[in-house]
Sequence to fold (84 residues):
Amino acid sequence: MNLGRSGKTDLVIEHNGRIIKCDVKARSAVAKAYPHRYYQPATTTMDPTKPIFMVCVHPVTKQIHWHESRVPTGWEGFWDEATY
Fold:
């Protein structure tokens, strides 16, 4: 569910009886000239007191993962699970 273009919540996920709110960000390109380009995690600061988790998307490979600094407990392998 996309909740809109503004605000902190871009996506709401319900899985195994739990609902979490997500802020979706693209990984940032660093050293933009080839062949040295790489992508770092989004640099947005996460507030651990708020119930929102950051989802990072690689702009080239489209790989999705949780932001390294905050992963919902029990959802560590969520993006590795087959969805088909």
